Amino acid sequence: MKSIARLGFYLTDLFFPPRCVGCARAGFVFCHPCAQLVAPVVAPICPHCGRPQSKPVELCWSCQLGERDSLSLVRIATLHSHPLRSAIHALKYERQPELAAPLARYLVAVAQQPPWLEILPYINAVIPVPLHAQRLAERGYNQSALLAGEFSERVGLKMAESWLRRARQTRSQVGLNAAERQQNVADAFLADSVAAGKRLLLIDDVFTTGSTLAACAQALRQAGAAAVYGLVLSTPAPTINDDTPGDV
Ligand SMILES: [Zn+2]
Ligand SMILES: [Zn+2]
Q1: Could you report the per-residue pLDDT of 129-185, keeping only the tens digit for each?
Q2: Which terminus of the chain has a lower count of CB atoms within 10 Å, N or C?
């Protein structure tokens, strides 16, 4: 059965060769030159949530306000700019789950740097930010679960997707400000009691205000998790307003 499926993939590739989502080059889903163009998140960043800042800070404004207190520490791998933005869009909305493998490489690269070298050995399980069942049925897969699966396999950690679920459907966060996003996802997640006492690592594809990640961590902490960390694939580049109260 497996070999028939493989033959199917082979024939599909033969007649419809994959095209790079960044530059349309045939034969690759995300070609090497495009992968080289992906911009990593570099200092200065907020030491707590990992968001890039336009100048060094002790804590970004949102973290000062305690909006991400449920999270122990977050790091974000890359900036949400072309061609990575196109790749994430294709992974999420254009039914290209095969992009999860090349994109998970950026998460693995971050996990091999401080402070993760000290944190990862104590992580009990990797948990993807869940999709609501209805959206999962429409999309056919959860892109964060694909990323978390690839990531956990490569770093040798267990994935525990069932420990966290979306209790209710939330409207898309696109177009909402920080306060509206926080309200939109408050109490949207439910964690299994098996999370009690565990040190967990959440994986997500995009970090905008961090409200989804914080709400997931909140649910896991309410279930008794000892610590909840976050590792996210990408975030928008910092703007001048990011450091000011007006942004929150
Ligand atoms: Zn390309
Ligand atoms: Zn922060």
Answers
A1: 999 888 899 999 999 999 999 999 999 999 999 999 998 777 777 787 877 877 788
A2: N
Proximal ligand: closest to the CA of 247 = 2
Distance 75 CA to ligand 2 centre (A): 10
Q: Are residues 64 and 12 in the same domain?
A: no
- Residue 47 CA, ligand 2 centroid: distance in Å: 7
**Token pair 């072309």 is at which residue?**
82
Ligand (nearest to CA of 63): 2
Q: Contact at 8 Å (CB) between 74 and 231? A: yes
Distance CA 43, CA 110 (A): 13
Q: What domain count does the chain have?
A: 2
Distance (Å) from CA 60 to ligand 2 centroid: 4
Report the separation in Å between the CA atom of 182 and the middle of ligand 2, taken as the mean of its atom positions: 15
Residues 6+ apart with CB under 8 A from 87: 21, 22, 30, 34, 99, 102, 103
Residue 222's domain comprises 38-247
What's the rounded Cα separation, in Å, for the pair 242 and 53? 7
Ligand showing the shortest atom-to-Cα distance for residue 20: 1
Ligand nearest 30 Cα, by number? Answer: 1
Same domain, 59 and 95: yes
**231 and 207 fall within a common domain:** yes
pLDDT band at 122 (very low <50, low <70, confident <90, very high): very high
Quick one: 22 and 75 in the same domain?
no
